[in-house]
Amino acid sequence: MKIAVLPGDGIGPEITAEAVKVLRALDLKLEIEQAPVGGAAYDISGHPLPEATLKLAQSADAILFGAVGNWKYDQLDRALRPEQAILGLRKHLGLFANLRPALCYAELQEASRLKPEAIAGLDILIVRELTGGIYFGQPRGRRSSPDGAFKGADEAYDTMRYARPEIERIARVAFEAARKRHKKVTSVDKANVLETSQFWRDVVIAVHQDYADIELQHMYVDNAAMQLVREPKAFDVVVTGNLFGDVLSDEASMLTGSIGMLPSASLNDKKQGLYEPIHGSAPDIAGKGVANPLATILSAAMLLRHSLDQAEAADRIEGAVKAVLKQGLRTPDIASDGTTRVGTAEMGDAVRRALA
Ligand code: NAD
Ligand code: IPM
Ligand code: MN
Q1: 14 in ligand 2 pocket by Cβ < 6 Å?
Q2: Is 246 touching ligand 2 by the criterion CB < 6 Å?
Q3: Active-site positions?
């Protein structure tokens, strides 16, 4: 079982180090190999996703990814920016299905800005399409406006597009997931305005024919953003496109206490997967030893479950995370009155000890 570890930038190396500690503490035969990615790779080799890193990722059963990005690279050509590394990995490996579970642990009800009764027991799964939509649609670029009221002015444009099979396969992932949960799927779109969204809705309805046991609901994305904070527990599985899923998953993280708690799995059709926290490289706290490593540690649990068929080891990690929260240990992002403040490494060590 080979795992490629790509720490990346900012807090990436700090949080992946803790997840690797936890993985190594399990008695599993894991081959773990590390490679640079993002700005860290650009600094060494002039490219955010060097050939050797991509090769390693392709040859691994699973990838544990930290985070990439830093303001100091924001002036580079887009193709050389750190974020292209994660986008490139998703595209090269065909990781179209992004699972972003948002779970509110009982111990963290007080850490959220929302009222405890609104989020107690929250368990939703965001299924985000990850290799299409406006993130990857061509053409895109800058030009002189060819027509309209601003003809001749500088303009920029992107293209939002989805093909039927692309929507069909992500809809199936959502319906299958719902079958193992509370049998409800909310498809989020903007069908009242966007052609791609009306098509998305039509295709999801067609796929639903095969899933009569699942309740299907449609919701516009603006309303979904509001309902997520109004009554989050009304959701079970949310399926949506690349851009809407990006935004809604950051929003959902605050229902759980902190963005430092949300893991993710990005899967292709061969069960190969990339696992990463949903947050970024947090340059504002990088190097301070205060980042919450739990989203990354929980991503390692998802890795064991989804790509390595090690459900028992995954359960052990998730149990250990619950245990340290019960012990009252908190990084600053999830701290509340009466809890014990710890740093990144102390939190990782505590999870490792709690594995037993
Ligand atoms: P961010 O998620 O990095 O940070 C947003 C806020 O959340 C910051 O205040 C940060 O300190 C806090 N935060 C994030 N993770 C935390 C953790 N584990 N523990 C405690 N606090 C945490 O988003 P941003 O500031 O918009 O982006 C910073 C950089 O990260 C950008 O370059 C962006 O492109 C990149 N990014 C990368 C990924 C990825 O690699 N998949 C994801 C999102 C953003
Ligand atoms: C995420 C991030 C990425 C995205 C960026 C860094 C490309 O925000 O994984 O949520 O937008 O998908
Ligand atoms: Mn994001």
Answers
A1: no
A2: yes
A3: 135, 190, 222, 246, 250
Q: Where in the chain is the domain with CATH 3.40.718.10?
A: 1-95+262-356, 123-255
Residue 85: φ, ψ to 5°? -65, -45
Q: pTM of the full predicted structure?
A: 0.97
* Alpha helices (H) along 154-290: 164-179, 195-208, 221-230, 242-253
Q: Which amino acid is at 274?
A: L
Q: Choose the residue to mutate in 16, 108, 279, 290 for probing ligand 1, maximizing ligand atoms within 8 Å of C-beta.
A: 279
CATH of domain 1-95+262-356: 3.40.718.10
Q: If 0-12 CB within 10 Å is exposed, 13-18 middle and 19+ buried, where does residue 262 land?
A: buried
72-127 confidence digits (pLDDT tens): 999 999 999 999 999 999 999 999 999 999 999 999 998 888 999 999 999 999 99
Exposed / middle / buried, residue 287 (Cβ in 10 Å: 0-12, 13-18, 19+) = exposed
Q: Which fold has domain 123-255?
A: Isopropylmalate Dehydrogenase (3.40.718)
